[in-house]
Fold:
Amino acid sequence: MMKICCIGAGYVGGPTMAVIALKCPNIEVTVVDISSQRINAWNSEHLPIYEPGLDEVVKKCRGKNLFFSNDVEKHVSEADIVFVSVNTPTKTHGLGAGKAADLTYWESAARMIADVSKSDKIVVEKSTVPVKTAEAIERILTHNSKGINFTILSNPEFLAEGTAIQDLYNPDRVLIGGRETPEGQKAIKTLKDVYANWVPVERIICTNLWSAELSKLAANAFLAQRISSVNAMSALCEATGADVSQVSHSIGTDSRIGPKFLSASVGFGGSCFQKDILNLVYICECNGLPEVANYWKQVIKVNDYQKTRFVNRVVSSMFNTVSAKKIAVLGFAFKKDTGDTRETPAIDVCKGLLGDRARLCIYDPQVTEDQITKDLSMRKFDKDHPAHLQPPSPTSIKQVSVVWDAYEAVKDAHGVCILTEWDEFRKLDYKKVYDSMQKPAFLFDGRNVVDVGMLRKIGFIVYSIGKPLDPWLKDMPAVVA
Ligand code: NAI
Structure:
């Protein structure tokens, strides 16, 4: 029986391996991690991550051909294929700080693979890594190999959190990069055969190593660029009276542009977009391409601008101060259907409001108080390191409370900010919300989920990104110096 081991039981390693186990009953799949807390959770009734459909897949396979273990070395040494899906956060110090990928976790995983292996292995890069990482990893593996052959493949993951299981069942494509040598091609075929158990072969794209590595960075850069493009348009819509939803719909019907990923919002988040673009920028700079680097940097700048703009809209419309005012924050995760808060725009928006001394009452159906407190007290970039390396639960922040009900959050609030597009925020009883708030009641929709006309009829003063402005907001500056 073929054995697969995946190092890193996170948002990628867990769901990806669960689906491989489900679709390939003849393969034994073990996911290992240095965090015993994470492994214990994978072996319990409460999985460490929330992802629609994941519980069912894990329940079907766990204990049969899917295992979660802390015994990293044993399972790596027994595996035929080792996937590496560890964190690759942005470096916080030293050369390339704030831009380059921190490959500490990758390197230590590679050294461990070399140390414990007793048989030939295919080592698969699942983490998103800078171009040419495979070469560095190959060197680590071969220099410590004791005669064992390691063949390295790049197999970047394109799943999106919130729809990970569907994306894995039915991927647009699977990308496998390998060396153009007989060993490289043989390894590509072995991995292709695994995916071919459920993915149509024409959707399995095989390339060289560097194309595969760069394609992942390029895909994330293009996706984030689309969001920044529509967000830049949203600012212009507000200034001109155009409606960003109408503009998005109109341009999205052009088959060359397409309708997806054109929703204006308070900004993109998630662990990948910013980190991968920064990484791309760094690679461009290292290769003497400052113009290309600056082009991509702008995608992040517009994202930061959008968050600042949102905070400034809130503060300026509420008489230029939110000091001591209760603001209800609905949604903290970086998007709906996930509990992941890494790089969520809610962090910057909340910090901006706290900077103006607001009192925040936060509700998100999937994010705990502990996580929110950590996020609001941690430094930028620290959040993408493994949980066991993060500071223990911080003490609560005086101006922030976290509740488990939207109506509780909005009670006596002066303003409501919607920061995640959870479906339940579309269906709230807004008359009830209005009645329980201070007046004038402000609502700032960072995700365009509410019916602006209906809310204005109820009596709210509404700001919705990229929509024609409420008369109240018309003369207020969008960006305060
Ligand atoms: P994660 O933080 O959820 O999981 C990584 C896991 O690796 C952690 O549980 C950590 O404890 C473990 N780990 C770190 N070093 C280890 C070592 N030496 N030995 C054993 N375990 C170790 O991260 P996530 O989100 O799963 O991302 C992993 C990689 O996949 C990153 O490179 C990311 O850029 C990429 N990726 C993430 C996507 C996402 O939606 N989250 C989508 C596509 C790619």
About this structure: DSSP finds 17 helices and 14 strands in the chain. The first strand starts at residue 2 and ends at 7.
